[in-house]
Adenylosuccinate synthetase
Amino acid sequence: MAGTIVIGAQFGDEGKGKVTDFYSDKADLVVRYQGGNNAGHTVVVAGKTLKFHLLPSGVVQGKRILIGAGVVLDPRVLKKEISDIGSKGMDLGIDPRTHIIMPWHNLLDEGREELRTTKKIGTTKRGIGPCYADKAERIGIRFEELVEEKRLQQRIREVFPVKKAILEKVYNIKVPFGENEVFDEYNALGKEFRKYLCDVSLEVCEALENRKEVVFEGAQGTFLDNDFGTYPYVTSSHPISGGVTTGVGMPAAKINRIIGIVKAYTTRVGFGPFPTELTDETGEHLTQKGNEFGTTTGRKRRVGWLDLPMLRTSMRFNGFTELAITKLDVLSGLKKVKVCHSYTVNAKEIKYFPYSNKGLEKAVPNYREFEGFEITGKEKKYSELAKNARAYLEYIEKEIGCPIKLVSVGAGREDTILKQ
Ligand code: GDP
Ligand code: IMO
Ligand code: MG
């Protein structure tokens, strides 16, 4: 039995796509279990860049890929991703319980953001929040309904007039499509995708019983978790490791490996607290060298130093069994590299992330400074990394209390160093 979860330890975009691809070579199944096409996961193989929003990154290694019940699925995006990858050899299963993003969800997402006078979240406008809200409200449309004409028609008939009224009367947004139009398009998509219907919970649990390897690819990051992130500046699902059990329908005890993906510094897209944010020339170095522009929306990512109070808290929420540090090469060339080791809040030193944004506003980061280092891109072994780079990594390891097993020094699959 071997279930491995790949988790974003920070605010997303840590390199989950790259690490999932790397560890998918030995996997039998690669599974997405939360979030939707708000995610943007990049895999670079033989100089070719592939970006996925919905399909698990394991598709690159030709593995069977599954979309679990906890995902919200936009069928238009699925159609495009399948066509981009070419369906040749693609082996996909979708859980019947998966909720469907309907075109009104995108409009509601935009409308809600427009109406927020303060506390705009800066969502990806992919309809994620409104779709999860419908699920919680028990009026969502599930994949099992999308693929059955009569049931789909009945559900659209029930839901469409309500959504149209809300959009037009509350949000003042003219709905540019009619009920029949939506039915025709989504019924056609449902017919096309019917072949992917699969009880993902059953398939995953049987695979694990039969000692198969399953990689669970998390989306977003720990501090975007709906409960444990910097609420309300969060997403609507559960990116922390616990999300895998409810997102797949499986017991936690079946997971034996939880990999925390940590970018060697911090980035964030959208609004919300960011104690170690840099807006100076060092920030500019990270933005440019790290090419820190969103994979999904193209927005410039905010950048800052690595934050250990955040990562210690991430360790507590997720129970990482190992860490993968990515984008170490981006720090190369800086004279000094800083790490926030604690905060001072009301004249008191604290080592964890405050539970509220109110606390975070008062948090002043305390930094430890490291000498800079160069990464040449030729390093293949951990021992070949510059001494100062190793000192930086070993400090992180010690402070978080979790071993680093992988260090990434470039976007390509080959730019990956395993640490014994
Ligand atoms: P994800 O959402 O966690 O999968 O991460 P994204 O794909 O959104 O963002 C990570 C970006 O960094 C992508 O463009 C990757 O190709 C790139 N990347 C991943 N690892 C490394 C690395 O070690 N070095 C560099 N320079 N780029 C990397
Ligand atoms: P991956 O999987 C980074 C952010 C958005 C916004 C907030 C809520 O590529 O790491 P949403 O559309 O989910 O309602 O937006 O969450 N966000 C991400 N930031 N990486 C992601 O995914 C993200 N998915 C959502 O920018 O601040
Ligand atoms: Mg991303």
